Amino acid sequence: MTYLVAADLPAASAGERFRALLARPGILQMPGTHNGMAALQAKAAGFDAVYLSGAAMTASMGLPDLGVITVDEVCFFIRQVSRASGLPVLVDGDTGYGEALNVMHMVRSFEDSGAGAVHIEDQLLPKKCGHLNDKKLADAHDMAAKVAAAAKARRNMVVVARTDAAASEGMDGAVARAKLYLEAGADAIFPEALITAEMFREFASRVKAPLLANMTEFGRTPFFTASEFEAMGYKMVIWPVSSLRVAAKAQEELYAAIRRDGGTQNQIDRMQTRKELYETIKYFDYEALDASIVQTVIPQGMPQREPA
Fold this sequence. Notes:
Layout: H1 14-23, E1 28-31, H2 36-44, E2 50-52, H3 54-60, H4 71-85, E3 89-92, H5 100-113, E4 117-121, H6 140-153, E5 158-163, H7 166-184, E6 188-191, H8 197-206, E7 212-214, H9 226-231, E8 236-239, H10 242-261, H11 274-280, H12 283-289
Parallel strand pairs: 1-8, 2-3, 3-4, 4-5, 5-6, 7-8
Helix pairs in contact: 2-4, 4-5, 5-6, 6-7
């Protein structure tokens, strides 16, 4: 429990811990965690790091992923995820929220909030999901200046440079940009929206750096497993919006059921129980910190209605 107990707080910074994970053998698997609860569940499942997606953050706010949220709003999500789980978080930094000085502010703010890594993309605002059409690319040297600013501002944070160039500039353009961003100070490269195994392999053969693969659903990339990405030369893989997609679909079905049935009585089997919820959020650990709180007794099951 990392919110309250100082002894449970990691001694090393999130950036240092993220770098240590990259130094280990094998591919680093990071599921998207769109809030603190999701982060706790990812940790319980055994993941060592998590991802915070701009698309998931904006969608959870009822907004499109068009670069419309602010640094402070993202920091709210970072604090939730990092404090709840204690895991190092890779955060979607969109286009950096402006030019070089804005990028430096973003990096400092994210790192202060608990982020271990950030990725910045080479699109122009209004930016779009990397798997959509007609993305507008920034000048490669302007993007390199942002990467250099991020590297200058960070203390331990890992800086990942994302390039969306493959769709419009081809593999040669994406590779050239990646090499320029590495020279500017990027620690790793995120080639977005590659559409075949051959493209993933070619990029990895031509760019000698830790590489991040994006396994998003309903996009342009076919389904590959973590081990398949690793075999293609990738060090990290994210599933950015999967948790939000599942949660949102379940909520949609719940609301429809309440409207249809006049209550939740037909949805109980699909719900996390009170006991499971309290175990996930360490409810009783918090109670134990304060002797003035009487220990909670969880109701056993659902009471049955008496016959009318």
